[in-house]
Amino acid sequence: MKLLIVLLGSLVCGQSFEAASIKLNNSGGRGQGISTYPARIKVINAPLKLCVQIAWNVKDFQVSGASGWMDNERYDIDAVAAEPFKKDGYRAMLKTLLAERFGLVIHSETQEKQGYALVVAKNGSKLHPPVEDPGIQFSRTASGDTTLKAPNVTMVQLASALSSQLSAIVVDKTGIEGRFDASFQWTPDQAMRLKSGDPAPAPPPDATPGPSIFTAIQEKLGLRLESRKVPTEVIVIDHAQRPSEN
């Protein structure tokens, strides 16, 4: 069943920014993202689709209906709250702002999407004991390989991190409890680079390619990514319009 969500400021009283500026970004730059402060957020060079991702805390493949200008035109948003945010309180305020300034109307639904199940490989897991460092970080080596630094994660957290890299839902089906050092390295193929919008150049032709993400996770962690249809929560954009700048 579809859940219709019409976001109007009057329906979320007290969840609005005190002041907000939205401007079209015509720089042509590739960099984009969000900076958060105790009572302020800045969204830089972001299309409406990314703003929806931020507000609903979902990934790219979980937003549907963002075609044309919604996925191409970039905006800068600078919004200030009357008092410091409580945890992720800025997300509710951003939802209100998108409704007020973009006329955003969305609904959420569950769709069967092609994704992956994270399972234990045939010969058992090779997970290492955790290190006292809870951060999850992706980095790029000089040769173009990707390193996932995940020294203290649960399997649910690992599945979520892999989901970002694969642009598809990944669910934990390992049955493994606790925390582990699940760090490993792989070589992204060209299709994955293009899908993720990775600006990094491909490695030189004479470079020896490393394992794919699928091979690396099995060899290093004793886990496997099994392709399957997975129920996925999706945010569907029903209506939006270009904002008036201020």
Quick description:
With 246 residues, this protein is an alpha+beta fold. Helices cover 22% and strands 32% of the residues. It is built from 6 helices and 12 strands.
Please give a structural write-up.
With 246 residues, the protein is of the alpha+beta class. It folds into 2 domains: 3-109 and 235-239, no CATH class; 125-221, no CATH class. It has helices at residues 48-56, 69-72, 89-102, 155-166, 190-196, 213-221; strands at 3-6, 19-25, 33-37, 40-46, 63-64, 74-80, 105-120, 137-140, 146-149, 170-172, 184-186, 223-239. The strands form 3 sheets. Strands 1, 5, 7, 10 and 12 form a 5-stranded mixed β-sheet that branches. Strands 2-6-4-3 form a 4-stranded antiparallel β-sheet. A 3-stranded antiparallel β-sheet has the order 8-9-11. A hairpin with a 5-residue loop joins strand 8 (137-140) and strand 9. Helix 1 runs antiparallel to helix 3 (89-102). The radius of gyration is 20 Å and the shape is elongated. The two termini are 38 Å apart.
